[in-house]
Give the backbone structure.
Amino acid sequence: MKRYLNGMIFIFSIGILLGSCTKDTQTNILYIMSDDHAYQAISAYGHGLNNTPNIDRLADEGILFNNAFVTNSICAPSRAVVLTGKFSHINGHLDNSNTFDGSQVTVPKLLQQAGYQTAMIGKWHLKSDPTGFDFWKVLLGQGPYYNPDLKDTSGVQRYIGYTTTVITDEALQWMDARDTEKPFFMMVHHKAPHRSWMPEPKYFSFEENTYPVPDTYFDDYANRGRAAKEQEMSVIVDMLYGWDLKIIHPDSTQRPKDANWMLGQLGRMTPEQRAAWDAHYNPIIEDFLSKDLQGEELAIWKYQRYMRDYLACIQSVDDQVGRLLDYLDETGLAENTAVFYTSDQGFYLGEHGWFDKRFMYEESLGTPLLIRLPGEAEAGSSSDALVQNLDFAETFLDLAGASIPTEMQGMSLLGPMNEATQTGDGIPKDWRTSIYYHYYEYPGAHAVKRHYGVRSEQYKLIHFYHDIDEWELYDLEKDPKEMMNVIDDPDYAKVLIEMQEELKKLQEEYGDSEEGARELIPNK
Ligand code: SGN
Ligand code: CA
């Protein structure tokens, strides 16, 4: 309703008086997306792992989405979905090996047409140069944690500093220099907290923290299928000593090749950065090598090492979100700027013994989503609506008062935002009751098999295919940690039929099928 009234005022003011869009009537959009940021690692989500006061501000002053999901839990495909408002099989970006077709219709292009000034700063990862942005400055590929090379229309330049800070510096500079006569749309994409989790010295102190080990950390995957058993994303088995755990053996003959990858990253550092790094990690390495940990002790040590570095990287992201929010406050922009915080997907923090993402299981299907926009979302509100990154493009266009192309496949989030209150569930009457998912990157890193599926409020049905043909069904109410595949349980026979029908309905609606997918990615 609020939106409707705003829309009416908007139409009258521009249609009758001006005939064109003006700054006062169009909402600025600041979209902040980090990489691999688990919702479990945002304190507003209440998991008690860490404290992210700046990101939490968006929930305190806006809305927190409890059921935000991606359509394909992997970096570049997720970005392509956000830009196009279309599933991977339509926008053509199925996995990280693809090159984005920048000639297609994207949300920044439509916002430009609606009078916006558009900017993209940080991790891009789509291979082709950005299109639809008046200004862009992006990392090369995955980008490093220290002293990043950034590419813009004039070429590539190295920036000295911690990447999370450098990206924010660039974002602030662009906001300061922008044309204030126009509304803006800015995407700020962090590299952090993507592997290999290299903190800034300010947060080396996280080494003193001890984190609760998830109760599924030693999961043996009983009652589940081959996909869960055959993955290669186990903290205990697959984490690399040099690259992930920062153990560089002093004797170079005892270093596995991933130690050299880490040394390559350290080689980018200034002497001061390197000295601070070594002063912190050398005692950790010495201590580890002196102990000869085995079995459960070693498994727990790996978990703690992982969490300390991962959460330290997030603390820097939180600080830098704070800088952007302060800037909006100081310049009076906060009132008329929608601020989004999300990640390109969720991440495992030791649940099922894992790191990484990809699976349609909760931790990686889910992604954090917090939005602040005074007048549209009540402060401190939350929504249980099933929403997806597929919905962002439509939301941006709705905020701009621009028309939404019918080919786009999501739904504007202004519905749930307007519906949500501090006590209500924030689900509009006509909202979707299930979401669709499809993951393709197999064979590939971490060996997660191809799969697609449907998730409703209570159930999840998944089909793993390609070199396997296995179905899984979970009752999320009784089994929120997804430890029991009930596909063969007669008590769930009726649920299974309903979920199969739902899956078919969604595949028809979105124009996807297993056969179609097999054609899109021939056997690698
Ligand atoms: C790299 C990482 C993987 C990660 C992918 C995709 N390996 O390949 O662990 O799953 O990126 O991540 S690393 O040895 O290079 O760190 S994504 O977020 O970009 O999709
Ligand atoms: Ca990612």
Notes: The domain at 435-520 is CATH 3.30.1120.10 (Arylsulfatase, C-terminal domain).
